C-alpha cells in the first residue's frame, strides 16, 4: 500500500480516499491476505480514519500449547490530528510529565499517512491477550504419579554410589 500525501486529500472527491486491501502485511503472519479497505477523510485539522478488515492468524494456546486458527475481524476508527510536531527541548530532568490532552495521535499537515502501518497496528491491537483454543481447554495433562519412581538417568551413577555408602 502506498502512503497517502495528506494535502492531496483536499482535492479528492468528498475529501476521502478509500484504499482497498488484499495483501499480506509485513510483520503480521496470516494464513490468507488481509482483506478489506481503509477509508481516510480529511476533515480540515484532523483525519478521520476507519477500516473494515479480516484476516486469519495462527495462535498458540496459552494453556495446552496447541496451535489454532483465529479469525481477526476489525472495524476500527480513529481521529488523527494534523499539527506540526512540537520541538522537544533537552531537559536535565529525568522525568517529563505529559498532559492528558497530548496523548493523541498526530501527523504533520504536509506529511504522509501510511495505511498499511495503521492497519497493522489495529490488527495487533485486536489480537486476544488471553489466547485459548477453547474456553474449556484443560491445558497440558499432568500425570499424578510418584515423583520418586521417576529418577533421572543422569543421576543413576550417583544413586548407585549412594547405595554403597554406610548409613
Task: Name the descriptors.
elongated, alpha+beta, six-stranded mixed beta sheet, 167 residues, single chain
Task: Name the beta content range.
Answer: 25-35%
Low-confidence stretches: none
What summary fits the major beta sheet?
6 strands, mixed
- Give the ordered list of helices and strands: EEEEEEEEHH
| Count of alpha and pi helical runs | 2
User: Shape from CA axes?
Assistant: elongated
Mean pLDDT: 87
Cα(first) to Cα(last) distance is: 77 Å
Gyration radius, rounded: 27 Å
- Class by helix and strand content? alpha+beta
Polypeptide structure, described:
- The protein is about 15% helix and about 30% strand.
- With about 170 residues, the protein is α+β, with helices and mostly antiparallel strands.
- It has a domain of about 120 residues.
- Strands 2, 3, 4, 5, 6 and 7 form a six-stranded mixed beta sheet that branches. A two-stranded antiparallel sheet has the order 1-8.
- Strand 4 and strand 5 form a beta hairpin.
- The longest helix is centred in the C-terminal third of the chain and has 12 residues.
- The chain is elongated, with a radius of gyration of 27 Å.
Question: How is this fold's topology laid out?
Answer:
Elements: E1 4-5, E2 16-23, E3 34-42, E4 46-60, E5 67-74, E6 77-82, E7 106-107, E8 112-113, H1 115-126, H2 156-164
Parallel strand pairs: 6-7
Antiparallel strand pairs: 1-8, 2-3, 3-4, 4-5, 4-6
